[in-house]
Design goal:
By secondary structure, the chain is mainly beta. It has 1 helix and 12 strands. It starts with a strand and ends with a helix.
Length: 154
Amino acid sequence: MELYVLPKGNEKYLITDRKDRKIYTVDKKRFSKQVILHDASGYALYSLLQLTTGMKPAFRIDFNDEPFMKINCKSIFLDPSLECEGRGMKYLIKSQDRKNFEIYKNSEKIGTMVAEKQTNNEPIYHIDVDNKAYDDYIPLFAVCANKCFSELNK
């Protein structure tokens, strides 16, 4: 599965496929700190809540208002990485330069995520994940990476 995650400002993201078709949107829930992942028809799939900020931000993905997965930023500078755990799954999204990430699920490499710059200097995240390993919450990894690393990549 090949996706592009485009930040649109103020906690909004557009997720498209390689043919530029809208697959998902992410936007901020009113009067809340949560951002919601919607499918193309507008159905709310997952929500993402930032638990901590600073040098090691932490996030939580909720499914049906129940905690589903916790995401921790392990390091911002040396060996930048995000570690995601929940429901018997463990993901590791790691990089050397905060731009080219490898995605591992239970120690097996399942794909990549590359942060590129658009012409307006805003980031765009290109996610390429094996179809068998893909799940709907994976675009939220790019949202977390954007919140953790985008200021350092400018």
